[in-house]
Amino acid sequence: MALSVIAPRILCIGIPVRDLTFRVESVPERGSKANATYLAEICGGNALNAAIAMARLGGRVAFAGPMGDARETSSGFILERMAAEGIDIGHIVRMPDAATPVSAIIIDATGERTLTIYRDPTLWTAKLSDADELLADCQAVLVESRCGAFCIDLCAEARRRGIPVIVGVDRAMALTDGLLTAASHLLFSSEQVQETAGVADDGEALKRLAGLTPAFLAATRGPNGTIWLNEAGTLEETPAFPVEAVDTLGAGDVFHGAFTLRLTEGGGLRDALRFAAAAAALKCTRHGGGLAAPQRIEVEELL
Question: How buried is residue 243: exposed, middle or buried, by Cβ count under 10 Å (0-12/13-18/19+)?
């Protein structure tokens, strides 16, 4: 599983988030209080978590998307950490008078998380850099599904240039969403694929969506592995790696990033899915959201 001589350059598109994470024994009931056993302040967001994972696994990563006003503190906090991970932040769009998103995340003793987030609606009016600039020397684009409002034209242009567009689906999609057909690969979770398709079964949901998009379709199911459709339209499964999970925050994002990188390196779908499963499993064994993404050597040792 050797890396290419020149690591692939991957463009990530999303909205970074400042995360305040609290560890508790159990999620408090409505109207009650609970003492946290641990507090961490980290950077997050679907595409940013994926970008960190790719950078640690050996990719060259650039990030594009909106952040708050240059005067507010959350954006500075996040940008410092992005730069420390080696992520190109030259295409970040600062939105005057807007706030960078902030989330409060409660992680219980099983590693499951409960989340509340604020996103300034102004962020969806962002204008990204010119396509020629963003797609230069770009081997793949990974985008959060919620960002179609300001990146659908760029994704369509990437596909016209033969560049894969991988969409990490972070919420149910409308069947009229332009990213559904602009994507080359759509990575759902079980809940999201069922809600998008309106079908209460992962496999049947994937088959229904296959009639609406030519994209590769997969749904992750945590410890139950990943279900996906091969080129013949037949359902296949990639098992998860059994681990003792302590923190699932960001695991799906790490999966998306690892899949994108391995696919861009020339790995086939089965190879990329297994590589992604290993990276996501390792992330779940440690606290820290996307900042707990593993290094390349750790993934290769697990494989």
Answer: middle
Q: For residue 158, how far is the Cα from the chain centroid? A: 19
Written as six digits, the tokens of 219 are 């749904």
- Which secondary-structure segment (H or E) carries 48? helix 46-56
How many angstroms separate the CA atoms of 98 and 21, rounded? 23
Q: Do the Cβ atoms of 7 and 60 come closer than 8 Å?
A: yes
Cα(159)–Cα(215) distance, integer angstroms? 11
Render pLDDT for 66-119 as a digit per residue (tens, 0 to 9): 999 988 888 888 999 999 999 999 999 999 999 999 999 898 888 888 889 999
* C-alpha distances out from residue 136 to 42, 86, 141, 142, 161, Å: 30, 18, 11, 15, 11
- Residue 106 tokens read as 């409660």
Contact 126, 159 (CB under 8 A): no
